[in-house]
Each structure stands twice: as structure tokens, then as C-alpha cells.
Design a protein that fits this description.
Radius of gyration: 32 Å
Helix content: 10-25%
Structural class: alpha+beta
Mean pLDDT: 91
Number of helices: 10
Number of strands: 41
Largest sheet: 6 strands, mixed
Distance between the termini: 40 Å
Length: about 625
């Protein structure tokens, strides 16, 4: 911001008191943050949760558009964050605006003073007056002569306040709106809980939804409207099955049943952004309405509007489903819309050696049809290629079932280039060429991630040593076993018991999966047996690991250091330090050309130091980076 270079650490402008306690939770803000980090399911796996203690995090402000001192007490020093401050966004005659904001602020102050945990509804009259005043002021600003820029900013802020007032009113009245797919009449619940329902609807499906409003307040609740809305804007058939109710009595619950039919052209529940491959550095947007949202909305929502002291306010909720999960209980998650049939391929890619007579993969068909469904699956193949079977029938008795078909591919003349095979499932005149898997886990709402049902076969000019017996110990997950199988190798997946008392000498080589030392305590415990296997002539290949491996688990000392290096330029040249090494000569001659066309990065976790017994064979580096040897 100040356009000045400095070689000194910036001064502290503000200290963020992370060690302060949060009264509602009984934890410090730092403890809350660390517990949240501990729920991370991918990398790091959380960190130490510290005991309560003073803890400040220094912050330096590089520039400010408002006058501010060098030492601040808050990020908002010099910024008017009061309701009255909204008027500073506008120019011109703002007298009416300031007066209206003062009136709204008075209602807020009264609500704060009168609030009681035991009787939250006592603040409802002040919230209703504040909501009415806010709406009146929004209309006055819209019809005023306030110039742009400024007028739209004021309307934006006041609209946010309107939404906050509505939410506060619903909270004060403790209104409960629940909407869920109606369970079959004979469906039993679990220990008095809701009965299980289907979780995924398909185009053209008809079902029922039941909305419930529970008035936990001591006064009657006037109901203006209860209904359902589809987010995709398509022509859903939604009909109320009973006469509208205009009031919910104190401590009472009322129900609104609806019959729903999903249109044939309903939008599937899927992300509104996608990219064709990993090389495209940006996402394509399929619907600009959702730009800025984490995901496209779920397909169906219930809304209810209520009237109190001359103002209306509303609440809304996505229509839910009920799923019985063993060991957890009944989970409620939003209804999804997915295709009647989906298809996926496993694995999704593989090497095909030149001269191969056949290779194999499987295609799995999944049904969301509510009842029996029959169809056919086949493959779209490159010219001159054939499959066994040429096609296969699938048959399902109910939704949620899978059927897997094994295909053996007889390729034509294979060249060193990629080929694409697509699985096509045919059902009731429709073709389906993609599948999905559900993301999320208990506590996180599920959302489908779609992937084309394609197999990428890459022709490679490769030779393999015959008759090898290879053991593979999985780490956090990779496709190396399948890749080796595609090359005609005999691969066996190892269990922890194989490491502790299995016959390791029966393997020509043992490969450890990515990050195995980070996630396999049994590997660390049995590391001595692996080293004995190596001393007796065995071969162990350790794939990518980080600091969990940095404990001299190898036969000689080494260190990755506190900050293991990466080479991220996928086009960085790779130099063969010793081209004459047997590793590069048999059974295939490896040259620098074999590293062309790699996707993503050159390498992670390069060692900082190593014993002289180790011999690095390759070197690469990013621009302005020291040479990184090994790999």
C-alpha cells in the first residue's frame, strides 16, 4: 500500500487477543480455533489445543483509507460501524436518512435492554417496530434524490438490517419450521423418531412433503403463508393437500402436506462450476446466479411467513430427508435431485503397453429409480477396438442398488498416445455417461461430485521384468497397484500382519504408499523387519512422505529438514545425474524425455541432507531455487 520496500519486520499495529475467553463456550478463542482445526479431514490432522492463557497475535496494517493511529484497539478504529454510520455512505441531503436510522437504533437499544433468556418474546414489539421502520426507510431511500454512488450502498446495508430483524423476530418467538419428505405410511421410525425416507429424487418422480410449524410461544402465531419453492426455476408441480391454516396456537403444531412432482428437465443437484481438466487454471460457471456461493442451492425449500403487529416476517428451510445410519441414528440431510441412472468406471485411467492383447476395468451402474429398473450398458471405443462383453444388461429391484460389469478390452494397434473409452448406460430411451460420489461426512451436509464415466488409456512403450512378485502397503491412497497390474505385474496388497510376521522374502520388491509413515503406526513398529528384508537382498521403494518419515527410518541417516522443498513447475527440466545407472538402463532406457508432459508438479519432500551411502540419481528445481537432488 505504501509502495516502500523494507528489510525489517513490520511494526505491530494491532494485537488480536486470541487468548480471551468466549463466555458462551467456556473456551478461549484460540482453543476454539484449534479444536476446529482438529476436525480437518485432509492434511495436518489438527494441532495442539493450548491451555487457557494470554495469547496475542500481532497484526500490521499496511494502509488505511480512514485516519488511524499507529497503535489500534480494534480493526474498526476510525470506522463508524453504528447504524447511524450507514448515512455516511450517501451524499446530498441525508437528513431524513439520519432521522430514520436514529429511530431504528432506538428500537434496537430497547430490544437489547429488555432481552431476557427466560422470556425472549418480550423484545418482539421493539423488533417489529424496528423492522417496520427499516422497510419504510428503504422505500424512502429508493424514491429519494440521493445520488449514486451512495444510494445503492445504503439500500444494500438497510436490506441486510431487514433480514437481521426478520431472523431476530423468528428467534424471539422460538418458531420452528420443519419440512421433510413424507415417509411411507407403513414406515416405522426409530425409537419414536422420524421414519426413513428416500434421500435422492429423480426427474418425473412424484412424492409428498410435509411442512410443520411449532409455536413455542405463549401467544397465537398468525400465519400468512406456508409453501415450497424450487431453486432451479423449472416448472415443478407443487400442490397443497389441505386448506391453508391461518393460526398456530400457543404450544401447538400445525402441518401443511404437499404433493410434489419433479419436472423432467429439473436441474440436478451439482456444483455450478467445473473445469474440463487439471490444466485449465480456472472454473467455467454454468449459472451466474450462484456466483460467489460455495455451491448451488439444494433443489427444494419450504418457507413460512407470519404476521405480528402489522409486519410480516419469514423463515425458510431446505426440504429434508431422513436416513437411518447404523451406529449414529437418523440423519436429516437436504433432498437431492440426481439422474435416474448413473455410471462410473474404476480405475479411471491406465497404461496400455504397446503390443498388449487386452486390458480390463469395471463399470458400475447405480440406480435412483424408485422401484424396478432394467437397461443396458455398453462402451464407446476407439476405432478398431472391441470389448467383451460388447454390452451387458443391468436390472435393479429398488433404488440405491449397484451393479458392476467387468469389461475386457481388446485394443487395435496401440500407439504411444492417449485413448478415451466412455461407458454409456441406456434406460428408458435416455443415455447416461456420468456418475457421482457423495462428499461430506456425518455433521457435514452431503453434496454430489460428478465425474464423466470415461477411462483414459495411455499407450506406452514399456517393458517389464517377467515374473516379479510385488507387495504394496497402502498409505493415504494412490493408484500405483492398479498401474503395475496394467503393466502385467503380480501385485499383492499387504496388511499390517504381513509386516509383523509375514514372509517378506517372498517378494521381489515392496512399495510403500504415499504418506504411509504418516498414517501407518504398524509400519513404524515393523520398520526393523523391513530393514532386515533389505539387508537380505530385498528392495523397498518409499513413495512421497513428509516429516513423519524424518526419523531415520531408512538404513542410513537422512533429514528432510523443517521445511521440505517442493518443485512445482511441471515443466522444470529433469537432469539424470548418472545416466549410466542400471536404474535408467534396464528393462527400459530412461531419458530426460520421459519426464515431458507431466501434469501438476515435479516433486515434494526433497531431502535436505543424507548419508554418503545414498546416491541421488536425478535433479530438478524451480527458477531461482537451489538444485533439488533425489526424488
Amino acid at each position: 500500500m505504501n509502495q516502500k520496500w523494507s528489510d525489517k519486520a513490520p511494526a505491530t499495529t494491532l494485537e488480536v487477543p486470541e487468548g480471551l475467553p468466549s463466555p458462551a463456550s467456556g473456551l478461549t478463542f484460540l482453543q476454539i480455533a484449534r479444536e476446529g482445526l482438529g476436525l480437518q479431514k485432509t492434511q495436518n490432522g489438527g494441532g495442539l489445543t493450548p491451555p487457557p492463557a494470554p495469547q496475542n497475535s500481532p497484526y500490521h496494517r499496511y494502509g488505511s483509507r480512514v485516519p488511524a493511529s499507529e497503535r489500534e484497539n480494534s480493526f474498526f478504529d476510525g470506522i463508524d460501524v453504528s447504524l447511524a454510520g450507514i448515512a455516511t455512505l450517501a451524499n446530498g441531503d441525508t437528513g431524513f436518512l439520519r432521522k430514520g436510522l436514529a429511530e431504528i437504533a432506538g428500537d434496537v437499544d430497547n430490544a437489547v435492554r429488555q432481552y431476557s433468556v427466560e422470556k425472549p418474546a418480550a423484545v418482539a414489539p421493539f423488533l417489529a417496530r424496528g423492522l417496520k421502520a427499516t422497510r419504510t426507510l428503504i422505500e424512502q431511500v429508493r424514491t429519494s434524490s440521493l445520488p449514486e454512488p451512495g444510494r445503492s450502498d445504503v439500500i444494500f446495508e438497510l436490506t441486510a438490517k431487514e433480514q437481521q430483524f426478520e431472523k431476530a423476530l423468528a428467534t424471539a418467538f422460538n418458531i420452528s419450521l420443519q419440512a421433510a419428505v413424507a415417509a411411507p405410511a407403513a414406515g416405522p421410525g426409530g425409537r419414536g423418531g422420524p421414519a426413513p425416507t428416500f434421500t435422492i429424487a429423480v426427474p418425473d418422480q412424484a412424492f409428498r412433503v410435509e411442512a410443520r410449524v411449532y409455536n413455542q410461544n405463549a401467544e397465537p402465531l398468525k400465519v400468512e403463508d406456508v409453501g415450497l419453492t424450487a431453486s432451479d426455476g423449472k416448472n415443478w408441480s407443487i400442490h397443497a393437500e389441505s386448506q391453508a391454516k391461518r393460526e398456530v396456537g400457543p404450544g401447538k403444531e400445525e402441518k401443511w402436506p404437499f404433493s410434489v412432482t419433479v419436472p423432467a428437465d429439473a436441474a440436478l443437484t451439482r456444483p455450478y462450476f467445473s473445469r474440463p481438466d487439471e490444466e485449465q487454471p480456472y472454473y467455467d460457471i454454468s449459472d451466474d446466479r450462484y456466483r460467489g456461493l460455495p455451491l448451488a442451492p439444494y433443489p427444494l425449500a419450504a418457507h413460512a411467513r407470519f404476521e405480528y403487529q402489522g409486519v410480516t416476517f419469514g423463515v425458510a428451510q431446505y426440504v429434508q430427508t431422513n436416513e437411518r445410519v447404523p451406529g449414529i441414528g437418523t440423519l436429516q440431510n437436504p433432498l437431492l435431485v440426481a439422474p435416474a441412472i448413473s455410471v462410473s468406471i474404476s480405475p479411471s485411467a491406465g497404461a496400455v503397453p504397446i503390443g498388449s492383447s487386452d486390458f480390463a476395468f469395471t463399470a458400475t451402474v447405480h440406480s435412483n429409480v424408485k422401484g424396478p429398473a432394467q437397461g443396458t450398458i455398453r462402451l464407446q471405443l476407439p476405432a478398431g477396438w472391441r470389448s467383451k462383453p460388447a454390452d451387458a444388461k443391468f436390472s435393479f429391484a429398488r433404488d440405491g442398488e449397484d451393479q458392476t460389469v467387468a469389461f475386457s478390452i481388446q485394443p487395435g494397434a496401440v500407439k504411444p498416445e492417449p485413448y478415451t473409452i466412455t461407458a454409456v448406460a441406456e434406460y428408458k430411451g435416455h443415455s447416461y455417461t456420468e456418475g457421482y460420489r457423495m462428499t461430506g461426512y456425518p455433521g457435514v451436509r452431503p453434496y454430489p461430485l460428478y465425474k464423466p464415466a470415461t477411462y483414459r488409456a495411455v499407450g506406452v512403450d514399456v517393458k517389464t521384468a517377467p515374473g516379479l512378485h510385488i507387495g504394496f502397503l497402502p498409505g493415504t491412497g494412490d493408484d500405483v497397484p492398479q498401474a503395475l497390474t496394467n503393466l502385467g505385474q503380480n501385485v499383492r496388497i499387504l496388511a499390517g500382519s504381513d509386516l509383523t510376521h509375514g514372509d517378506l522374502q517372498s517378494y521381489d520388491a515392496i512399495i510403500l504408499g504415499v504418506r504411509a509413515y504418516a498414517v501407518r503406526g504398524d509400519l513404524k513398529a515393523a520398520n526393523g523387519r523391513l530393514l532386515d528384508y533389505v539387508r537380505n537382498g530385498g528392495v523397498v521403494i518409499v513413495q512421497y512422505n513428509l516429516q513423519g518419515f524424518d526419523n531415520n527410518y531408512g538404513p542410513y541417516p537422512f533429514s528432510l529438514g523443517s521445511n521440505p522443498q517442493k518443485v512445482v513447475d511441471e515443466n522444470a527440466p529433469v537432469t539424470l545425474i548418472d545416466p549410466s545407472s542400471p536404474v535408467f538402463a534396464w528393462p527400459n532406457r530412461i531419458t530426460a524425455a520421459d519426464f515431458r508432459g507431466w501434469v501438476e508438479e515435479r516433486g515434494h519432500g526433497f531431502m535436505a541432507t543424507w548419508d554418503s551411502h545414498y546416491t541421488p540419481l536425478v535433479e530438478t528445481h524451480d527458477p531461482d531455487q537451489d538444485p533439488q537432488k533425489g526424488g
